[in-house]
Every structure is written in structure tokens, then in C-alpha cells.
């Protein structure tokens, strides 16, 4: 029944590299069945069982499922070619029992697994002797280690990589790259022990003219003490992108002189006299509603030198529901009859459009408006992170390189306390937790949209983005664990786990976009129009064998062939020149460098 | 307030083609730059000739940067009369459609073009008589019925020396030899023959002079009903199965006539269902595909989405873009047509049956389906000359009524339907899904679609070969001697310089390795292996066919098993098609083999280049597919120059100087609208939506919530 494509699309997904590594490791403790079952160093087998995998595309598949402390691995027993499922337990969001001991009907008794990466898995088991109890318990235990006082797999992972991803981001050198500190901006260690704000990084950049004492006073007026600090400075205009949380205005419309003065110092710091632009990422009504719980926004009276606009981006709950609707129309089957209106009704791309539009406004203001910008939402760790990081991606070509993008994620997302643990629910069994939301996924989607619109502007390729998303859930690396830098430090994540960037940077060519042209200092504005926004099929619909991009991309392949051909010519040409030059001792003007050789166009058409 | 350099009045004269006559003109016309909502623009002269409407910029002298891609016949500010779609006049801010006689003259003129350009002309500063003359002139010449002989085609042909010998590789299918060669190429000559029965058009004026029928069909039967009811050969598949088409009889009131016709049909079916002919499947396209009316309605709605007046308009329609797109039904029609073509391909390839396409005239949807099937199954049709020959065979000589379908003469809107555009849109889907499989680019398809409205080529300006032949003689124009020599659109050098022609060729295309005769067999074998599938899939379909019930019944009774099958109506996916589709897609693509389109919702896309090319808001500065295409072109040039260098080194002729320059430099700076719109947008201001959606009624409670509910008021102090 299962078509030949099954094994291919499954191997097309997560963990391409893991099988390679596992095969290097044939020690005596390997599984009896065969050596092809991938295993990471530190991965241990827990159980295995005969099951029927209810493949939504090809019907029931008889197989054996192996469960380790890291993954669920299924290998079919009758199909040719073999059907393989290779699922890190970290992607599991929910495990349910389906059917009871008395249920009738074929394959009606088993387990239903909901995943965080846009798919569901269903296994049917034999009804006799509560056969599923054991596997259910094992899966629950290892998929949700946090709920069972077990460590994340990242802490037992013993992989080795030539590159150390933890070295990628050093806040000091990143700020130095931006030309900071300078005479207007200083680095402060006020948060060194996370005393000022436990969700902020230890190192902050603030206006030179604001003292640490000022900062403490400002912190009292900002939600969770998340004071305005610098994210990025424009090398030419000196305008900056600042980020923070909402001011604690409340119902009574409280004011805080220190906060007001602090914002004025920020405004003045770029040497311009224009107003400070404040972008509140929320819809206006939500910002108003926040006053009821003590929050709010910068009113005109209190901040006469600021210009406030709302960017109308919705909250984490709306985004979660939107993704849920998207899953409904693409998994397992793609909505057939009214695809476009179904897609529209999920609002997913509409949200993407709003986030991109907001980021374009921020970037445009900083680069051409010559005014500094302050971005916040409620707490400043979801929408704010999306906006600042996307604006920085538009303005600074460094962030469009592989390493630069890693730095961007480390800086704007991880160090500034995007609550990855809560938003993803790493190792947590509470699948209905309302703290969960695909905010980071949405950001990566925005990046993908940009890379789609500007196919030569990014050093990294689609595989890079998909790999990041895969390991956002997998818990194989420490990178995305915990909610803040403070907690990661407390857990000694950098010492005890591996960084995702180690995996990526050790095999960079796999994640490199062949068409990349390095361009410095060029603002890149995507068009946030539905005419250009597309559903990211290769991510959201990748489990469906019917909808699959040709891998590898034929255009890219042809390009690589040409590159190889060029390099070959250059090499042979050099050899020829050497021999020719040695023959003709009185050398001539033939010391042509490869770049000069770009000449002699012959119309080949 | 008119700040133009009044007295200079330097004579800007329109560039006229041979045979082109200036009909009327108006000066001090202000043309808005579409680029932004501001009223920026330029003054100039608006003229109307017997060929085009043209705007002549007063300061056109500043032509320092010649565009890389320029049409020699139709310039940036030229609109051929046939390219005009609709003309609106603006009266006190209100838009009114202008068609015939005008009582009042508008202050602004908006011209919507069939190639989707939009021109805005302000006439407020123009003298009143000139306004009258130019507006009524433009409306009259572009919107009112016209005689065929008044088409510019004839003036041009009589005035222009046609010294192109038309010796390109396109097979024109005007001679018996062309058909015989095609039969031989496809190995169809065993069972099919080219006939001369229609010489002098004695069979029918709708049919081409020469065509191909099964060998067993007699001349007598061809003549009997003017070729109706006769299976006409389109193409033969490598396994011998053939694609045929047939025009049906008009609905007869008279019972005995229809009885006779039925008997005739049954006789025909019987003859061609016997061995050596394969099993026959029939498909009545008029019932299994949308009607021409549906297609016309869908396209009319669809194109409207791209004829954008201003920025506000663009962003207002952006909010509900996907549902607007869906409501036009255009993409769905493309999907259905592609699916139908796959069904036919499956019958030919897997089931080894002949497929007979049936349509009233067999010159509309038959052309679309048979062309698509050939593009999918015959890699020759994916080369430039192969595709052009295909268009000649199925459409131009095949008798598609271009004149009526494009409504070039404004005779009847009822006949208008963008059937040929539908084909190009479907082919584009394949081109973008399988870039290395085609010798031509999407730009080629775009300029081909534009050429539909350029009346200097005869290709798209006749309803049939007969019509062209009878109008070629030039008798009615006494002043002219001898027959007209029309140009064919396939001579692309008429429209483009070699530099621009480069954009029509796909740098990714890898030519099919040409096997010599001895190797051909193995090549064929490989080809088959790529395609072959378990034969069990040829299950007889139990579904009812498309024929009127009684005919169906009758045929079954008479012919028994051999002709009992019909291609399913497209409502439910036939299983065999699904298997065919899945199985093909699970294998690596052979770009020179069978090619099947992906037709799931997300895979059918809008042909962005054609439809978005003039819209500044949609411009990606430095982005779009052109960014990668330009890189590939640059690299290819580099490789070629290295090759030359190598040869030189080998011959030891040391040449140090490098003279020529890569064609596309600084490719990252090209706009996605390249090579079409040439918007000189200096400031790289991002386009920002002016209206966004905020409406989420159904999730009201969620919307109002905060991200995480924490009472911050308690935190204070």
C-alpha cells in the first residue's frame, strides 16, 4: 500500500545527519534488530514494540517502533521500500489513548500523538493484555521529562562537533561591531547578576547620559523592569532601535518623571532634534485595555516629544489559534475545493503581513526618518522581539549571514528573554497551556518570506530555517531551553549541553544559499502584500508526499554545476598559463586574475 | 499653473511604421506617472494613428539609459489599438466608461490595456477642440467595430518590404510535407495519413488545407458533413496511441437528420475502434470543462484585480486578496484544465488508448487540451521551435478563431474568450514548476501573450487558414500589387534586438542529448521505464460518460466492448489518475520525459510576471526570480568567456585586453518588474500597506486578552 515515496519524505525531515553519526557507533550495546537504527551518543534505548502506523497518506503500515530517551523510531516490516518514521520526542505535544479494550473495528485501539511540527501520528496496537500501557507510559515519561523530574535529552547528549556554537554570540563583540560603546552610548553592567531585571541579559547598552541610578528609577515604571535599552544603532544616521516593555500607567494615568526624562535622553542621543518614535506593537484597544491591569502606553501629555503609533499585531492567543486553523487545512490533507479562501480564513498570512509591515515601519523610520525608535508591546518579549529582529535583518546585512543570523537569534530572542520554555512547552505535558504560542515560528516564517522575495540576499537557505525550527522542539540542544539568560546560566546550559549552532556551523555548506551575493549596508524592504506572501509549503506541508518541492532544487543544482565548471576552467587556465609562461620566457600580459577574465562575452543564445 | 516651457514646442513626432498614418493628436496632455499617488507626471503630445495610441513625452530627449529589454514595435508609451481594453473618462471625479458617441468630453482619460498597463492622461490643459478630436478619435478607432481589411496588418503588409524569409525553425503546417514530417516524427504514419481533400477548401472553410486522419477514413466521409464527425489527428504518443479531435454536429431538430448523423458517427467509431487502432476513449470537452462563457467571465474578473488605479486601490484589495482571487475562479479553471490534460495523458501513456476530444468546433478547448498534452508528453514541444510549431499546428492552422476570441474587430463580445491566454497560463504553471524542462522562459510566454495585440503579424489576426488565404490576395486594394506578405510572430527579431532576445531563452535548459540512430532504441527504452507503471491500473471505469444518454446507449449496443469507456467527468478524481499522478511524482523528474503538473491548491499560482509587472507597489527592489536568473546568466557568461580564454591559451595567442562587459551587471539591483516596467524609483522607500485588516469577530474573547494575564498594578512600588 505505502508508496515508495514514504521513506523518502520521512528522511527528508528531521535528523538527516543523525543516522550518519549513529552508524559510526557500532558498539556491542547496539540494538539487536539491525544497525540502521540511528542513535546519538548518549541516546539509550528504552523499549520497542510491534505496532501499526496509521499513515494518513498511505494507509496502515505494519512496523516496529523503538523508543529511546530521545526519539521515536518506526521501521516498517513489510513495505518495500521501508517506511521510516524518525521523531524526536521533543516535538510531541500530546499523547492520547484511542479506543478502549472493548473497542471494535480494525485498528481502533492505540495511541494518538499530536506533534508541535504540524503533524499527528497514530499507532494501532493489539488489544490483548493492555499492550499499550507500557508504551504510553514510556512515551509520556520521555516526551515530557519536565513533568517527570527527568532531565532534557540535551543534558545527556554526548555528541561532539568540531565547532562550538556557544562561542558564536558574545554581546560585547556584537556591540563593538555596531561601533558601541561610543560617546553617546555606554555599556552598563548594572544587570550583571540579573538584579535589575531577571529576564534581560546581563550586559546592556544605554544612553551615556543616563546613570545607573536613573535606570533603576525607570525600571520601577516599566513592566517587569524591562527598561528601554539599545538593540541596534544605524551606522550613518546614529538613530537607534530601542526595546522595552509597556509603561505602568494604569487606570489613573500615572506618570514617571524619570521615565519621561530617560526617553528624552534617548531621543537626543542621535544628535537629531526630531521626535522619538514609539511603536506599540499592540492594537490600540489592547493597549488601552492594559491600563486596567496597571499597564498602558506613553500618553501625549507625559511624552510631548514622542510620537506613538500602534502596529495592530495581535496577541499570542490569536496567533496560536491561527496556526491551529492552518494545521486543520493542511494536515493530513490539503483543503481541496476552496484552498485560497480557506487559507485566508486562517489569517496566518495576514498576521505575517502585519508583523512584516510593523518591522518595515521601524526599519524605515530608523534608516530614513532619522529618528530613533522605541518598540514595545506588553512585556516586550514576543511581538517586540519579532519587530526589532526583523527590522535589524532589513537594515543590517550582517544578520543575513549564517553567523549573523545566529547572533540575531541569540541576542534579540534568547538574551532578551523570549520565553521559549513557555511558548514551546519543552518537556511539559500540559498541552493546553495558554502560554504556548508560535511566536518564534512566525518570526522564522517572516524571514522565509523575505528570503523568498530576495533570493540572493541571504547567506543561509531554507534548510537552515527548517533545521532551526526542528531543533526548537527537539530538545537535543540546549539553545532554546528555558525562559531567560538568567535561568540558562543557573542551569549551566552552556557547560552542560551543546548549542544548535555547533551542528550547523560544523556543516555550513548544507545550510548555505548558493545564490547569495554579499552586499553591504543595503536596506532590504520586503513587500508586505498578499500578492507576494506565500504559504511556506516546504515547512507547513512537508509531511504530505503529494506536495513536495523537488529536492534538490533544480535551479540551484544547475547553478552549482556551473560554479564547479567555472572553477575547473579557472584551475585549468592557471595551469595552462603556468606552462605557457614557462615556455615563453619573456612573459606577457597574461597574468589575468579570475575576475578580469569575465570578459569576452559571446552571445550564447 | 501650467509650468511647461511654452514656446519651445519642439516638434516631437511620433515614430511611424510603414503604412502607419497619424489620425489625430492633442498637445499639452499631462500623463501621470503611475508610480505614486502624487500627481507627478510629464507633459506631452497624445496621438492616435491607425496602429496605436502614443504619448510623446516633451522632454523625451533624456534617453540616456536605453532599457535592456525594449520592444522595437511597441514602445513604453505606445498602446496598439487592439491592446486597448477599456477607456474611462473622468468627469468631476467620477469614472465613466467610454464606448461610442460622446456628448461631453472628460477632463481625464484612463486607458486600461489588455497587457495590463494602465495609462492616466489629464486633458485639463489641452485645447478643447483637441480634446474632442483625440478622445473621440481614440474611442472610435479602438472601441468600435471595424472591417477586417481596416486592420493595420494590411496597411503594414502593403507598405513594409517583407524581407525576412521566415526561415526559422518553426514548422508552419501550411504544406502537406509539414504534416507528413510531423507524422513521421511521431511515428504516426502507420495508421494515419495526411489528406489533400480540403484543397480549394472544398470540404470546409474551417478546416486547414491539409490535415491528418486515420488511414481507414474515406474521402467520401470527410466530404459528407463538411468534416464534422471526422476524427482528426493531433499527435501520436511513443506507444502508438493517438490524440484525436472531432467537431460535432450542430443540434438537429429534425429527427431523421439526427438519426442519419448518429448512424454516420457509429460507422466512424466502428471503423476506428477496430484493430490496428487502439481502444478509443472519448471526451466531450464542452461538458467536462468550463464553457467559454465561464472562462471569459473568470478572466474578466481576474484581470480586473491587476488593473490598479492607484496605491490606495492596491492596498484596499490586498486585504481580501485570496478570497478575491478565488472568487474570480480563474485559477480553478487552470487547475481543471491541467487535470483534464493529465487524464488524457494517462489514457495515452498508461492505458494505451486513443483519445478523441470532442467539441462543437474542435477549435477552442480542444486546442488547449491537445497542446497541453503535447507539452507534457513530448519534450520537443518544450523547445522554442517545437512550442511554436505546436501553436501553428493546433491553433493557427488548426483554426482557432483568434479574431473572434480576441474580439480584435469589436464585432461581438459574445464570441470573446481568452482561450489562448488560458493555454499560456497553464503552460506557465509547468514552466515555473519545472524550470529546467523548457527552452523558453516565462518572459517568452509574457511577450507571446502581448503579441496577441500587435497587428503587424498575421499569426493572431485571422479566424482560419482559409480566411487568411482569401484575404492575402489583396484584390480589393487595387493600388497594391500582388498578394500581401504577412509577417509571422515567430520572427522575434521584428520585435526585439538580439540583446533583448536573450531574455526569452532559458539558461537552465539542458538540451536533450541527441542520440544517433543506433542509440535511439535504448533512449526510448529508458524513456519508457521512466514512465511505466503497473498495468493493473487500467481498470474499466464504471462511471457514466458524457454523451447524451441515448447516444451512449446506442454506441454501447452497437460497438460492444471496444468503445464502452469514457473519460470520467472531472468532479471526482478517477483512481487511475490519482495513481498515475502519485506514482509519477514519487520518482525523480526526467526533464526530457513526461512532465505532469502539480495541481494541489498551493501549487497553482498567479503568473506574477505577466500580471504584476506594471504595479509599482508590487515591485521588489533587488528581488524576485530575476535576481537568481540574472546570477545564472552572469555565471554562464563568465564560464563562456573562460572557455574562450582557454582556447586562446591553447593556441597561445596571448590577448591581454578584455573588451566586452557582462550583460547584466549589478544584478542584485534589478527590480522584480524587470525586464518590463522601468520604474526609476530613486528613493528606496518601502511600500507600506495603507489599509489593514483588524477584524477578528469570531475570536473576540481571544483578541481582547493580554498575552499573559498578570496584574501589574500590584507589582508597583
TrEMBL record, chain A:
Residues 165-540 form the Myotubularin phosphatase domain. Residues 1-42, 583-605 are annotated as: Disordered. The active site is at 377 (phosphocysteine intermediate). Keywords: Cell membrane, Cell projection, Cytoplasm, Endosome, Hydrolase, Lipid metabolism, Membrane, Protein phosphatase. GO terms for cellular component: filopodium; late endosome; plasma membrane; ruffle; sarcomere. It holds the Pfam family GRAM. InterPro entries: GRAM, Myotubularin, Myotubularin-like_Pase_dom, PH-like_dom_sf, Prot-tyrosine_phosphatase-like, Tyr_Pase_AS, Tyr_Pase_cat, Tyr_Pase_dom. Residues 346-408 form the Tyrosine specific protein phosphatases domain. Substrate binds at residues 315-316, 377-383. PROSITE patterns: PPASE_MYOTUBULARIN, TYR_PHOSPHATASE_1, TYR_PHOSPHATASE_2. It comes from the Eukaryota. This is Myotubularin.
TrEMBL record, chain B:
GO terms for cellular component: membrane; sarcomere; sarcoplasmic reticulum. It is found in: Cytoplasm, Myofibril, Sarcomere; Sarcoplasmic reticulum. PANTHER family: MYOTUBULARIN-RELATED, MYOTUBULARIN-RELATED PROTEIN 12. Pfam families: 3-PAP (PF12578), Myotub-related (PF06602). This is Myotubularin-related protein 12. CDD domains: PH-GRAM_MTMR12, PTP-MTMR12. Its main location: cytoplasm. InterPro entries: MTMR12-like_C, MTMR12_PTP, Myotubularin, Myotubularin-like_Pase_dom, PH-like_dom_sf, Prot-tyrosine_phosphatase-like. It comes from Loxia leucoptera (White-winged crossbill). Belongs to the protein-tyrosine phosphatase family. Non-receptor class myotubularin subfamily. Gene3D superfamilies: Pleckstrin-homology domain (PH domain)/Phosphotyrosine-binding domain (PTB). Residues 173-611 form the Myotubularin phosphatase domain.
Amino acid at each position: 500500500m505505502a508508496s515508495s515515496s514514504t521513506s523518502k519524505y520521512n528522511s527528508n525531515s528531521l535528523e538527516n545527519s543523525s543516522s550518519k553519526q549513529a552508524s559510526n557507533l557500532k558498539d556491542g550495546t547496539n540494538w539487536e534488530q539491525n544497525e540502521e537504527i540511528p542513535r546519538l551518543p548518549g541516546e539509550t534505548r528504552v523499549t520497542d514494540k510491534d505496532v501499526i502506523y496509521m499513515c494518513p497518506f498511505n494507509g496502515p503500515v505494519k512496523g516496529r517502533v523503538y523508543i529511546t530517551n530521545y526519539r521515536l523510531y518506526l521501521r516498517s516490516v513489510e513495505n518495500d521500500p521501508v517506511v521510516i518514521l524518525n521523531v524526536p520526542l521533543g516535538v510531541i505535544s500530546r499523547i492520547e489513548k484511542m479506543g478502549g479494550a472493548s473497542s471494535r473495528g480494525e485498528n481502533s485501539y492505540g495511541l494518538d500523538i499530536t506533534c508541535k511540527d504540524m503533524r499527528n501520528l497514530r499507532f494501532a496496537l493489539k488489544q490483548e493484555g493492555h499492550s499499550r500501557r507500557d508504551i504510553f507510559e514510556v512515551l509520556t515519561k520521555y516526551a515530557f521529562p519536565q513533568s517527570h523530574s527527568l532531565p532534557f535529552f540535551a543534558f545527556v547528549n554526548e555528541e561532539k562537533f568540531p565547532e562550538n556554537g556557544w562561542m558564536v554570540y558574545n554581546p560585547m563583540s556584537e556591540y563593538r561591531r555596531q561601533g558601541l560603546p561610543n560617546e553617546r552610548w555606554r555599556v552598563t553592567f548594572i544587570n550583571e547578576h540579573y538584579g535589575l531585571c531577571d529576564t534581560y541579559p546581563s550586559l546592556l547598552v544605554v544612553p551615556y547620559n543616563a546613570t545607573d541610578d536613573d535606570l533603576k528609577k525607570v525600571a520601577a515604571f516599566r513592566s517587569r523592569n524591562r527598561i528601554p535599552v539599545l538593540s541596534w544603532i544605524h551606522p550613518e544616521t546614529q538613530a537607534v532601535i530601542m526595546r522595552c516593555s509597556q509603561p505602568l500607567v494604569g487606570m489613573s494615568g500615572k506618570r514617571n518623571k524619570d521615565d519621561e526624562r530617560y526617553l528624552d535622553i534617548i531621543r537626543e542621543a542621535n544628535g537629531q532634534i526630531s521626535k522619538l518614535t514609539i511603536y506599540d506593537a499592540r492594537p490600540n484597544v489592547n493597549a488601552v485595555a492594559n491600563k486596567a491591569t496597571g499597564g498602558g502606553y506613553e500618553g501625549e501629555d507625559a511624552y510631548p516629544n514622542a510620537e506613538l503609533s500602534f502596529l495592530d499585531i495581535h496577541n499570542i492567543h490569536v496567533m496560536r489559534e491561527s496556526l491551529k486553523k492552518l494545521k486543520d487545512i493542511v494536515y493530513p490533507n490539503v483543503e481541496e475545493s476552496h484552498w485560497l479562501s480557506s487559507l485566508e480564513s486562517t489569517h496566518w498570512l495576514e498576521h505575517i503581513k502585519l508583523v512584516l509591515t510593523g518591522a518595515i515601519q521601524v526599519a524605515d523610520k530608523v534608516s530614513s526618518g532619522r529618528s530613533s525608535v522605541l518598540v514595545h508591546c506588553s512585556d516586550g518579549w514576543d511581538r517586540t522581539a519579532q519587530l526589532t529582529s526583523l527590522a535589524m535583518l532589513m537594515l543590517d546585512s550582517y544578520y543575513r549571514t549564517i553567523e549573523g543570523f545566529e547572533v540575531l537569534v541569540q541576542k534579540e530572542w534568547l538574551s532578551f528573554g523570549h520565553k521559549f520554555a513557555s511558548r514551546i512547552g519543552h518537556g511539559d505535558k500540559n498541552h493546553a497551556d495558554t502560554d504556548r504560542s508560535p511566536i518564534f515560528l512566525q518570526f522564522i516564517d517572516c524571514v522565509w518570506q523575505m528570503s523568498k522575495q530576495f533570493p540572493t540576499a541571504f547567506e543561509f537557505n531554507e534548510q537552515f530555517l527548517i533545521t532551526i525550527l526542528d531543533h526548537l522542539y527537539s530538545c537535543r540542544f540546549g539553545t532554546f531551553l528555558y525562559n531567560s539568560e538568567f535561568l540558562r546560566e543557573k542551569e549551566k546550559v552552556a557547560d552542560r549541553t551543546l548549542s544548535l549552532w555547533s551542528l550547523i556551523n560544523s556543516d555550513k555548506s548544507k545550510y548555505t544559499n548558493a545564490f547569495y551575493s554579499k552586499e553591504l549596508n543595503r536596506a532590504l524592504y520586503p513587500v508586505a502584500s498578499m500578492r507576494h506572501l506565500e504559504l511556506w509549503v516546504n515547512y507547513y506541508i512537508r509531511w504530505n508526499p503529494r506536495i513536495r518541492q523537488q529536492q534538490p532544487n533544480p535551479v540551484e543544482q544547475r547553478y552549482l554545476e556551473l560554479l564547479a565548471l567555472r572553477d575547473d576552467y579557472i584551475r585549468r587556465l592557471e595551469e595552462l598559463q603556468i606552462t605557457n609562461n614557462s615556455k615563453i620566457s619573456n612573459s606577457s600580459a597574461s597574468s589575468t586574475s579570475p575576475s578580469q577574465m569575465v570578459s569576452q562575452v559571446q552571445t550564447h543564445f | 499653473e501650467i509650468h511647461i516651457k511654452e514656446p519651445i514646442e519642439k516638434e516631437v513626432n511620433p515614430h511611424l511604421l510603414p503604412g502607419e498614418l497619424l489620425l489625430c493628436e492633442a498637445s499639452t496632455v499631462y500623463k501621470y506617472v503611475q508610480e505614486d499617488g502624487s500627481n507627478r507626471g510629464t507633459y506631452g503630445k497624445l496621438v492616435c494613428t491607425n496602429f496605436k495610441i502614443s504619448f510623446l513625452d516633451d522632454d523625451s530627449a533624456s534617453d540616456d539609459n536605453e532599457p535592456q529589454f525594449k520592444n522595437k514595435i511597441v514602445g513604453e508609451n505606445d498602446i496598439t489599438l487592439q491592446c486597448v481594453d477599456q477607456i474611462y473618462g473622468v468627469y468631476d471625479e467620477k469614472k465613466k466608461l467610454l464606448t461610442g458617441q460622446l456628448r461631453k468630453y472628460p477632463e481625464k482619460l484612463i486607458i486600461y490595456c489588455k497587457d495590463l498597463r494602465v495609462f492616466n492622461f489629464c486633458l485639463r490643459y489641452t485645447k478643447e477642440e483637441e480634446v474632442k478630436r483625440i478622445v473621440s478619435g481614440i474611442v472610435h478607432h479602438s472601441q468600435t467595430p471595424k472591417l477586417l481589411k481596416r486592420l493595420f496588418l494590411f496597411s503594414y503588409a502593403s507598405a513594409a518590404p517583407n524581407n525576412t524569409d521566415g526561415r526559422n525553425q518553426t514548422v508552419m503546417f501550411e504544406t502537406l510535407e509539414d504534416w507528413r514530417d510531423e507524422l513521421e516524427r511521431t511515428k504516426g504514419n502507420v495508421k494515419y495519413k495526411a489528406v489533400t481533400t480540403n484543397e480549394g477548401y472544398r470540404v470546409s472553410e474551417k478546416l486547414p488545407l491539409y490535415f491528418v486522419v486515420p488511414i481507414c477514413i474515406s474521402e467520401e466521409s470527410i466530404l459528407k458533413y463538411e468534416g464534422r464527425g471526422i476524427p482528426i489527428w493531433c499527435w501520436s504518443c511513443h506507444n502508438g496511441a493517438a490524440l484525436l479531435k472531432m467537431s460535432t454536429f450542430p443540434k438537429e431538430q429534425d429527427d431523421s437528420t439526427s438519426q442519419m448523423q448518429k448512424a454516420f458517427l457509429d460507422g466512424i467509431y466502428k471503423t476506428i475502434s477496430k484493430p490496428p487502432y487502439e481502444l478509443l476513449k472519448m471526451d466531450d470537452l464542452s461538458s467536462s470543462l468550463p464553457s467559454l462563457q465561464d472562462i471569459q467571465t473568470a478572466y474578466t474578473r481576474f484581470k480586473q484585480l491587476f488593473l490598479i488605479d492607484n496605491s490606495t486601490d492596491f492596498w484596499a484589495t490586498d486585504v481580501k486578496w485570496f478570497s478575491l482571487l478565488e472568487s474570480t475562479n480563474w485559477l480553478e479553471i487552470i487547475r481543471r484544465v491541467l487535470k483534464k490534460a493529465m487524464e488524457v495523458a494517462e489514457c495515452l501513456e498508461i492505458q494505451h488508448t486513443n483519445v478523441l476530444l470532442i467539441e462543437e468546433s474542435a477549435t477552442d478547448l480542444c486546442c488547449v487540451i491537445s497542446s497541453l498534452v503535447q507539452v507534457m508528453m513530448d519534450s520537443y514541444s518544450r523547445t522554442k521551435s517545437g512550442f511554436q510549431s505546436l501553436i501553428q499546428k493546433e491553433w493557427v492552422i488548426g483554426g482557432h478563431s483568434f479574431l473572434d476570441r480576441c474580439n480584435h474587430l469589436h464585432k461581438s463580445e459574445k464570441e470573446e474568450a481568452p482561450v489562448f491566454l488560458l493555454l499560456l497560463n497553464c503552460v506557465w504553471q509547468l514552466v515555473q514548476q519545472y524550470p529546467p524542462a523548457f527552452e523558453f522562459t516565462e518572459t517568452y510566454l509574457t511577450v507571446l501573450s502581448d503579441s496577441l495585440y500587435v497587428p503587424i503579424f498575421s499569426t493572431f489576426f485571422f479566424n482560419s487558414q482559409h480566411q487568411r488565404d482569401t484575404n492575402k490576395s489583396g484584390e480589393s486594394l487595387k493600388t497594391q500589387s500582388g498578394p500581401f506578405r504577412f509577417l509571422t510572430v515567430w520572427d522575434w527579431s521584428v520585435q526585439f534586438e538580439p540583446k533583448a532576445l536573450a531574455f526569452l531563452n532559458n539558461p537552465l535548459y539542458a538540451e536533450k542529448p541527441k542520440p544517433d540512430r543506433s542509440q535511439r532504441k535504448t533512449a526510448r527504452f529508458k524513456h519508457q521505464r521512466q514512465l511505466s507503471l503497473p498495468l493493473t491500473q487500467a481498470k474499466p471505469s464504471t462511471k457514466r460518460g458524457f454523451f447524451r444518454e441515448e447516444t451512449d446507449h446506442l454506441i454501447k449496443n452497437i460497438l460492444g466492448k471496444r468503445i464502452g469507456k469514457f473519460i470520467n467527468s472531472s468532479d471526482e478524481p478517477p483512481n487511475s489518475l490519482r495513481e498515475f499522478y502519485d506514482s509519477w511524482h514519487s520518482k525523480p523528474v526526467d526533464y526530457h520525459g513526461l512532465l505532469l503538473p502539480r495541481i494541489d491548491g498551493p501549487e497553482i499560482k498567479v503568473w506574477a510576471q505577466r500580471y504584476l509587472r506594471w504595479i509599482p507597489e508590487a515591485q521588489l527592489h533587488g528581488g524576485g526570480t530575476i535576481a537568481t536568473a540574472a546570477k545564472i546568466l552572469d555565471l554562464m557568461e563568465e564560464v563562456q568567456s573562460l572557455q574562450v580564454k582557454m582556447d586562446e591559451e591553447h593556441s597561445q595567442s596571448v590577448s591581454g585586453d578584455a573588451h566586452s562587459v557582462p550583460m547584466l551587471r549589478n544584478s542584485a539591483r534589478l527590480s522584480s518588474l524587470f525586464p518590463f516596467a522601468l520604474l526609476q524609483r530613486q528613493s528606496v522607500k518601502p511600500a507600506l500597506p495603507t489599509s489593514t485588516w483588524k477584524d477578528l469577530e469570531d475570536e473576540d474573547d481571544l483578541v481582547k486578552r493580554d498575552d499573559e494575564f498578570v496584574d501589574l498594578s500590584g507589582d508597583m512600588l
